[in-house]
Write a structure and sequence with these properties.
It comes from Streptomyces iakyrus. It holds the Pfam family Response_reg. This is Response regulator. Keywords: DNA-binding, Phosphoprotein, Transcription, Transcription regulation. It is a single chain. By secondary structure, this protein is an alpha/beta fold. 51% of the residues lie in helices and 13% in strands. The protein is built from 10 helices and 6 strands, in the order βαβαβαβαβαβααααα. The chain starts with 11 loop residues before the first strand and ends with a helix.
């Protein structure tokens, strides 16, 4: 890899993932004008991001979350499954619990909002490339609150993996088949079921599916 002329170190390589071309152009221009960074490519959705990451092998992926054609959380999970080396820094406009928690659970190294100052973003990318967790103050506050404040039974949002398990349960899939489908152990499937039962306030598979349909979680 070519060394950066200013720092003497290899530049941090980036893949920018966002469905808005103007945002991608802005981020590319920002990082290419700063020493120590090199943009390898861009993707408009999570599916293309996973494919590009396999070929480009970036140090850091700047990942938006809500994108037509493939969301960020799904991409983060898939990158984890494929063993991608890249650290993933979520860069989005959304800071709700339903966005932040699944992204962190999926394996994101950091989470910043798009209104972050330029220098804060540069610092975050450097930190992420070293494997250090970076969270915007608003997101950090939400995560602390989520840990400290017990949720009422049946009101806690499901993780992305729990939604996958629940969707398969709704199709009548057995624990063994779910384990095979998701490449996890049956014990892990049972753990996910226990957690989602508690979150939905359900006693069994049938009740969980019924509650999920009633709340619009499924279909």
């Amino acid at each position: 890899m070519t060394e950066d002329a200013t720092t003497g170190n290899a530049p941090i390589t980036l893949l920018i993932v966002d469905d808005h071309p103007v945002v991608r152009d802005g981020l590319r221009g920002m990082f290419e004008s700063a020493p120590g960074f090199r943009v390898l490519g861009e993707a408009p959705n999570g599916v293309e991001a996973v494919a590009l990451a396999a070929g480009l092998d970036p140090d850091v992926i700047l990942m938006d979350l809500r994108m037509p054609g493939g969301g960020g959380v799904e991409a983060i999970r898939e990158l984890g499954r494929t063993g991608a080396r890249a650290k993933i820094l979520v860069l989005t406009t959304y800071d709700t619990d339903s966005d932040t928690l699944p992204a962190i659970e999926a394996g994101a190294t950091g989470y910043l909002l798009k209104d972050a100052p330029r220098e804060e973003l540069f610092t975050a990318v450097r930190a992420a490339s070293e494997g250090r967790t970076v969270l915007s103050p608003a997101v950090a506050s939400r995560l602390v609150s989520a840990v400290r404040t017990p949720r009422a039974p049946g009101n806690e949002p499901l993780s992305a993996r729990e939604r996958e398990v629940l969707a398969l349960v709704a199709k009548g899939t057995s624990n063994r088949e779910i384990a095979r489908e998701l490449f996890i152990s049956e014990a892990t499937v049972k753990t996910h079921l226990t957690h989602l039962y508690a979150k939905l306030g359900a006693k069994d598979r049938a009740a969980a599916v019924a509650v999920a349909y009633d709340r619009g979680i499924l279909g």
